[in-house]
Amino acid sequence: MHRRIRLTPLVIWFVLGVPIIGAPVRTVAPQSLSTPDSSRAIAGAPTLDSLARLLAERFTTGAAAAFDSVYTDPLGRRVMHAAAERKTQRVSEPARVVWTRGNTAVLLFTPTVGGGQGRGLSSGGDETNTVRRLSGFYEAARIDGEWRLGRQVPIDSGSFIRAQRIHVALDPGHDTHIVDTLDIAIGAPSGFAARLNNHAQITRLSLDGRDVPHQLAGGVLWFASTARPRARLVIEYAIAEDERASTDSTAANGPPAYGALENTDGWLPFFGYDSGNDFAQITVTVTIPAAYRLTTSIPQTEHVANGIRTVRGESIHPQFILSLIYDKDWRVTTTTIGNFRFESFITPTFHFTHDSLASIITREYRLLTPRFGDPQPPSRYLAVVESRVLKGAGFTVRMNNAVVAGDNVTRLDEPTLGPSAAFVHEVAHGWTMDASGPAANFLQEGWATYCESLLLRELYGPAAEQAVWERIRTSYFGGQDRAGFQGGFEGRQSLLGDPDNGRIHYYKGSWIFHMLEHVLGASVFDRGMRTFVAHAGYGPNGYQQLIADMSLAAGHDVGPFIMPWLTEKYVPDVDARVEGRSVIVTQSQPTRSYDLPLDVELHTSAGVVRRSVHITGRADTIDVSASGTVSDARVDPDHHFLVRRHWGDSARFVLRAPEAKKVELTGNFLAQPLAATRDGDLWTVSLFLPEGRYVYIWRVDGTTTPDELALRDAERMPGNVEARAGVLVVRPVRRLPEHDQH
Ligand SMILES: [Zn+2]
To answer: How many domains would you assign to the chain?
Structure first.
């Protein structure tokens, strides 16, 4: 996944066509979908101090409704509600009053959820991540004699981290000691705050050379200060050994053979995973016993002296938190690809060689660079890292200049049953990983998933590319993958309403890029992307910038096209019906109208003809009086848009299994396995499906066909009744019964 890539879900090679939807590597504050009503009257308190106590009290002991009666932020409420539902321990000191003037004030609220499971890196990172949408600054105001809590003030308001010079003493099996010298800007009189691992033990903190009092609670490091445009902050701290590393150490009493400080552990100060204000020029110097190799996730050099390896990394352009990953068994290989250095950190048992990785990277850069420019310009370094901390995983995550894999990589891509391309996904993150703001995940995950389709086309042809979009569409609307994940984002989530690493960003998000390329044409789209990529990491880099860059390239405002895809929970429900000498094209989704330049296919007495209609409202009319008798009209026949489909056919799935007692059909288009009906040796499932491409796998006597066998059958015996898996293409033969449409 991307800059803050740390959140990339595991890529699972389940052939159900939903490879990018396994469990997240690290769960970062899973949150429910309820949207609280913030319009209700808010309770207050007579003094600021009593408001500060009331907030903590309602958080720690109250029910969700009691908390909501004093607290309004929707994302913060989700954190509290999820903790209350799961009965997770909630802890909070009274909020701290950090600024007042007359009838207004700023409070710092730093609660913790859970905790107590450990004192090390992982649990401290989990604590910081869990409350990151809740812990922070809030406005308060006195109205009619009562103090009430107002909106959350982003902790990066006017504040910046512009540079970090980091020294790390790493000794696996022992605490990690860190000295970080930061160039910062402090934007507000309420002091400086940044998120940090909640278990960091800070021994010293100085601002412009003077020691200052500070607090670390709720994953937020804070100290009082006046606003100042430039300041030097030095923090010395230790973080206890990672629980992950200590539990899977092969030598029970010895130091672990491998380990990691991942960016999501929050081991360095940062504002948030979608802030644009903490991209910093970074230098890092790490010492570690010479038996280990180590990657800093940025371009690096190293030397060994007196049994100590010293690795020095330096970012080429502003970057987000680093990851440090180390392993005793790595072989490190460095070669040159085009204008950059490629370095691999992999164990001898890793499934792919340095050279095979280099060749796919070369192919990807040759395809993407001419279209979209250099990634994160000027990019001169790419690493591939096998992190054995990620057990059982494939290529899962992008961290700065490093593509990170788990210890169980078996494929780079899979064009048939997936279809997907996990490795190129992680490499493609380089182009948009510095995106920021509330749609950062759309710009990161949507982009990288879109690039998978480009690479699959390059490697396997246009049908493989189209199959990606069919797979993503099917998963968007519903069904279930083998990990038990229920798709079905329609009507439940929106990209801007669900800003965290929700899977919707991979699905609807990737479609936005795909549709933009179609609507604008590749040359305009490419020009817009090149501009967007070129300013990555320098200043704001969110969806507004993408819209501005695309609009400039297109010569008109593309905002009306893009915005509904970001704000709405429903995709267009477009349809066309023949009424006399007209075809009426409608969009009837329950939310706002989309701006859609559609093709409509007319079936006439003289044959099939295409007409264009640019629908912006609820309905538009095409005059077809010149086209003879029109019998049917079908919208978007080439599937250029993520819209509901009203045409399809009855589909029949057949398996020959004479010995079986029970046979069920599974697939990403099915929410539940469907029981097949027996007729002699044959088992059959019949149902209506919208036009599209469907991947299915049989489950026989309760056992789902293993991925490798399913893939082999699907490739070697397409359509054969003996095959345990396959692909079925459904054509738009008839208008579907209403309940079978999607
Ligand atoms: Zn990704």
So the answer is: 3
Of the residues 582, 614, 635, the one at which a domain ends: 635
Task: Verify that 93 and 133 share a domain, yes or no.
Answer: yes
451 Cα to the center of ligand 1, angstroms: 11
CA–centroid distance, residue 284 to ligand 1 (Å): 25
CA 27 – ligand 1 centroid, Å = 15
Residue 742 has a pLDDT of: 66
CB-based burial, 641-678: b 16+ in 10 Å, e otherwise: bbbbbbbbbebebbbebeebeebbbbbbbbeebbebee
Examine the domain organization and report whether 146 and 46 are in the same domain: yes
What separation in angstroms does the CA of 34 have from each of 74, 496, 498, 566, 603?
9, 15, 11, 18, 44
| Residues 670, 628 within the same domain | no
Regarding whether 671 and 617 lie in a shared domain, the answer is no
466 Cα–ligand 1 center, Å: 20
319: in domain: no
Q: Which helix (H) or strand (E) holds 50?
A: helix 48-61
User: How far, in Å, CA of 342 to CA of 276, rounded?
Assistant: 27
User: Residue 50: what pLDDT?
Assistant: 95
Q: What does the angle CA 73 – CA 78 – CA 84 come to, to the nearest 5 degrees?
A: 125
State pLDDT tens for residues 406-415: 888 888 888 8
Q: Which residue positions in the chain have pLDDT lower than 50?
A: 1-40, 480-485
The enclosing H or E element of 370 equals: helix 354-372
Residue pair 112/102 in contact by the 8 Å Cβ criterion: no
For residue 98, the tally of other CB atoms under 10 A from its CB is 18
Give 449 Cα–ligand 1 centroid separation in angstroms: 7
Residue at 653 is within a domain: yes
pLDDT of residue 246: 55
Given this model, what pLDDT does residue 252 score? 60
Enclosing domain of residue 581 = 574-635
Cα(420) to ligand 1 centroid in Å equals 12
Task: State the pLDDT at residue 39.
Answer: 39
Q: How far apart are CA 14 and CA 636, in angstroms?
A: 30
Instruction: Give how far the C-alpha of residue 169 lies from the chain's centroid of Cα atoms, to the nearest Å.
Output: 31
How far is it, in rounded angstroms, from Cα 408 to Cα 127?
28
Domain end point (choices 635, 662, 687): 635
Positions of E strands within 62-145: 90-91, 96-101, 104-109, 112-113, 136-143
Per-residue pLDDT at 337: 92
Its pTM stands at 0.87
- Ligand 1 centre to CA of 599 (Å) is 32
Amino acid at 85: E
CA of 89 to the centre of ligand 1 (A): 32
Residue with tokens 């329609």: 490
- The pair of three-digit structure tokens given for residue 636, joined into one six-digit string: 């978007």
Question: How far, in Å, is the centroid of ligand 1 from the Cα of 566?
Answer: 19
The answer to whether position 725 is within a domain reads: yes
Ligand 1 center to residue 172 CA distance, Å?
Answer: 29
In the structure encoding, which two tokens stand for residue 604, read together?
């006439």
pLDDT at 482: 40
Residue at 460 is within a domain: no
Q: How far is 490 from 566, CA to CA, in rounded Å?
A: 13
